[in-house]
Design a protein that fits this description.
Blueprint lengths: L1 E9 L5 H17 L3 E17 L2 E13 L2 H12 L3 E8 L2 H20 L1
Antiparallel strand pairs: 1-3, 1-4, 2-3
Length: 115
Amino acid sequence: MNKYETVFILTPVLSDDQTKETVAKFKKVLTDNGAKIVNEEAWGLKKLAYQIEKKTSGFYFLVEFEAEPVVIKTLETAYRRDEKVIRFQTVKLDKYAAEYAEKRRNKLGAKTEEA
């Protein structure tokens, strides 16, 4: 199993419930195809660097997971079919990126425990 990280941007006109529902749908696509979700982060509403589909902001989400390579094609097909997704990118993490992601998770975990 390889380690992957996917970031997707949802349209800013969605309600909170619609956003959570859409994220849950993509997580279900991963778990139904045998992927193990390692970490997920909601980065919130952020301004885009340039307009996409006449929108200047979007809801950013990051999901780290372990899966077989065939799962990526299924996930990206699901992204393309959903009109709520305005951009996405999935990358395979090499050993250095995986180490960095783990350090970042631990650092974020420590911050949330303090708060």
